[in-house]
Amino acid sequence: MYNCLEKMRSGEPFTDKDREFNNKALITTLKQIHDDLDQAVFRAYGWDDLIPLWQKVYRDPPQPPLSKGGEESSQKVPLASLFKGGAEGGGIGDLGGSNPKEELEQTILQRLVDLNAERAEEERNGFVRWLRPEYQAPDEVVTQKVIEGVGVEEKKEEVVIAPPEQQKFPTKLKDQLAAIRDLLRTQGGEWTITQIAAQFKGTSAKKLETIQNCLEILEDLGVILSHTETETKCYYATL
User: Fold this and answer.
1) What is the block-wise mean pLDDT of the chain (239 residues), using blocks of 10 residues?
2) What SS3 state is found at 169?
3) 3-class SS at 168?
4) Which residue from 102, 104, 164, 236 has the least number of CB within 10 angstroms?
5) Are 159 and 143 in contact (CB under 8 A)?
6) Helices and strands (H and E) in the chain: how many
7) How big is the chain by its Cα radius of gyration, in Å?
């Protein structure tokens, strides 16, 4: 079924066997279902601007040229040739590259990476988008982001929410330094001491004092850097 679907999308002509199978398996219907699903996912992510590019690549495949007798030619049309910029190509210059499918996939991948970083930053600042809060975080404090002009006069203080699985904070200084270093290195972004402390089990003034001491040591060693606006934020040096 999917071999036939790929042929249909690429514009490759069907053989008699393909046509017979298409009539039995309704590949055209399968393609329509996939097309509807793809567009629904784009809209769910708020990426409606990519739908026209997707349509050019997947929904409006190149049609095989006709032979002199009016039948489909066996010669396959290169997909990239239909997407070259300019009037002669009649394609979409937005994609820029010679392989529109690869360009589109790279754009989607980059947006997912950026979205992941954005969500991680939100969670560090206390805003977690639980899918099932009553199951995933029944004991956590959930705060609503303040949206200007929607009945909220004063900005609420952000609440730091611990991750679903907190790490055990090491007891030895060497291991403490490594744990904090690895946290900032792997997660990226800027961290306050409260946000760092929330990633480890237990809450106490002593733990905060220990973390503060570790941060000072790591900064003296050049492993992390920090800056202070309203509060001090630390980040991994190479970032």
Assistant:
1) 86 88 87 91 93 81 46 42 36 53 90 92 80 76 50 47 72 91 86 88 81 93 88 84
2) coil
3) coil
4) 164
5) yes
6) 9, 2
7) 27
